[in-house]
UniProtKB/TrEMBL annotation:
Gene3D superfamilies hit by this protein: 2.60.200.20, Winged helix-like DNA-binding domain superfamily/Winged helix DNA-binding domain
Segments forming domain FHA: 31-83
Protein name from the UniProt record: PSer/pThr/pTyr-binding forkhead associated (FHA) protein
Keywords, in A-Z order: DNA-binding, Transcription, Transcription regulation
Residues annotated as domain OmpR/PhoB-type: 117-222
DNA bind region: 117-222
The keyword Kinase is assigned to this record: no
Length: 235
C-alpha cells in the first residue's frame, strides 16, 4: 500500500519570494487562509492588507487539494482565472494559485519522505535559539542578551511574529500605541514611528535588520552584514 503524500502549502509574498510561511495539509482538515489580525482565527495568516480576514479555504481529500474562495473582496485566482465564491476547485500539480491579483502566491509542494520534510523545516529555523522574556522586555539570542524599552519590545515582537513579511505603519501604530488609537487621542506621527524603528534596529545589532520598502511597509529579517540597514518607516 502506497503511503499518502505529504502536502505543504508555501506562501510567497511579492518582494519576499522564498521567505514565506508554510503549513501542512492534513486529510479532511480544512485550512482557513486570511489576513493576519492577531486573533489567531486563521490557520494560515497573511500579512497583506488587501487579503480578506476570511479569504479562502484549502482542503485535502486523500491526495487531492481543493480551494474555495470565501467571498473575498479582492479575489482568488487559479491559473489566472478568478474563482467564483463558495465553489470548490481542484488544484492540480503545477497549477498557480494566487490572491489579490497575484500579490500573494500559494505553492503546493508534495513529498513522500517524512524525514526529509522534517529536516527541510528544521533547516529554516534560526541558528541561534531565540527566547523572549516579556516581563523583562528582554531578548536572549544564543549567549547575547538585548534589553529593550516597552515600545521597542512591542515593535520587535510584532515584527518577529511576522518575520520576513511586510507590516504596515497602521499595524505598527495599532500594536505599539494602542492607547493612541482612540478617537480623541493624539495621533502617532511618522517621525515617531521612524525614531522607534531606528532605536530598535540599532539595539538589535548583528542579529536582525528592520527594513522599509516604499509603498509596501516594514519587515524584519536576519541580519546580512553585506547589506546596508534601512531604518525608515513606510510611506
Amino acid at each position: 500500500m502506497n503511503m499518502p503524500d505529504i502536502i505543504k502549502i508555501i506562501v510567497d509574498t511579492a518582494g519576499l519570494e522564498g521567505h514565506g510561511a508554510f503549513i501542512y495539509l492534513e486529510n479532511q482538515k480544512p485550512i482557513l487562509v486570511g489576513r493576519h489580525t492577531g486573533t489567531g482565527q486563521t490557520d494560515l495568516p497573511l500579512y497583506n492588507q488587501l487579503v480578506s480576514k476570511q479569504h479562502c479555504r484549502l482542503s485535502r481529500v486523500h491526495n487531492d487539494v481543493y480551494v474555495e474562495d470565501l467571498g473575498s473582496k479582492n479575489g482568488t485566482e487559479l491559473n489566472g482565472q478568478r474563482l467564483h465564491p463558495n465553489q470548490s476547485y481542484r488544484i492540480g500539480d503545477g497549477d498557480q494559485l494566487t490572491l489579490v491579483n497575484g500579490l500573494v502566491t500559494l505553492h503546493l509542494e508534495r513529498g513522500s519522505d517524512l524525514e526529509e520534510t522534517r529536516e527541510y523545516r528544521v533547516s529554516d529555523l534560526m541558528e541561534n535559539e531565540i527566547r523572549l522574556h516579556d516581563y523583562l522586555q528582554n531578548i536572549q539570542i544564543g549567549s547575547d542578551s538585548i534589553t529593550l524599552s516597552k515600545k521597542e519590545y512591542q515593535l520587535f515582537k510584532l515584527l518577529y511574529n511576522c518575520l520576513d513579511h511586510f507590516v504596515t505603519r497602521e499595524q505598527i501604530v495599532r500594536e505599539v500605541w494602542p492607547e493612541r488609537c482612540m478617537d480623541d487621542a493624539e495621533l502617532v506621527g511618522v517621525d515617531e514611528v521612524n525614531s522607534l524603528i531606528y532605536r530598535t534596529n540599532k539595539k538589535l545589532g548583528d542579529h536582525f535588520t528592520i527594513r522599509s520598502v516604499y509603498k509596501k511597509g516594514v519587515y524584519m529579517k536576519k541580519q546580512d552584514d553585506s547589506e546596508e540597514v534601512s531604518t525608515g518607516a513606510p510611506s
